[in-house]
Amino acid sequence: MPDAVRVLGVVGSPREGGNTDTLVSTVLEAAESLGAKTSKLFVDRYAIAPCRSCGACVPTGRCIYRDGMDELLSALGEHDVWVLGTPVYWWGPTAQLKTFVDRWFAPWANAETRKLFRGRVAVTVVALGDSHAAVARHTVGMFSDVFTFLGIPVVGTVVAPGVGGSGIAAGADVLRRPEILDAAREAGRAAVERVRSP
């Protein structure tokens, strides 16, 4: 029997139980329905220094910082599918998610450590309070460009406009949006199927 597909959900929102977390969890649940093994982490629970663009990582593929990114990169390496989720903060991803992605430069910079990105599949999730999906265009575009550059296919992009509510008290507004939840489920299933039949 082949090994189960492993799917990692990366929540770029610090709001547990909020819209981004709910959508990432929905993607993971759909993957589990096809037999995948899933894990989820919140980026804000890890201390990650921002990239200094010092270039020290180029010879080794290893950042000068020994911080929470070590554990996060290890988690990425253990999973076939990466589900990255973020709300839109001022037309872009959260600072936590952007710092996480910026630190991918170190493994990418070295031919040996660049193998971290080979054979992966991605799903992206973007939640926003504005009712116009176009407000997410920079965040969606960033994900698209990053994954295209890395040669990682994005098999699903879930954009959830109009789910910001009135702050933390609003909780997961997306639970009242079945069409968006269905899109997240479809993305989770598509990711598993892509890994099984590349």
Protein architecture, described:
With 198 residues, this protein is α/β, with parallel strands linked by helices. It has 6 helices and 5 strands; from the N terminus they run E-H-E-H-E-H-H-E-H-E-H. The protein has helices at residues 19-33, 69-77, 95-102, 105-109, 137-150, 178-196; strands at 6-11, 37-42, 81-87, 121-127, 154-160. A 5-stranded parallel beta sheet has the order 2-1-3-4-5, sandwiched between helices. Strand 4 (121-127), helix 5 and strand 5 form a beta-alpha-beta unit. Helix 1 crosses helix 6. The longest helix is centred in the C-terminal third of the chain and has 19 residues, at 178-196. The two termini are 18 Å apart.
* Major sheet summary line: 5 strands, parallel
Mean pLDDT over the full residue set: 94
Low-confidence stretches: none
Proportion of residues in extended strands: 15-25%
Biggest β-sheet: strands ordered side by side in the sheet: 2-1-3-4-5
What is the radius of gyration? 16 Å
Strands, total number: 5
Anisotropy-based shape: globular
- Distance from first to last alpha carbon: 18 Å
Short overview:
This protein is α/β, with parallel strands linked by helices and 198 residues long. It has helices spanning 19-33, 69-77, 95-102, 105-109, 137-150, 178-196; strands spanning 6-11, 37-42, 81-87, 121-127, 154-160.
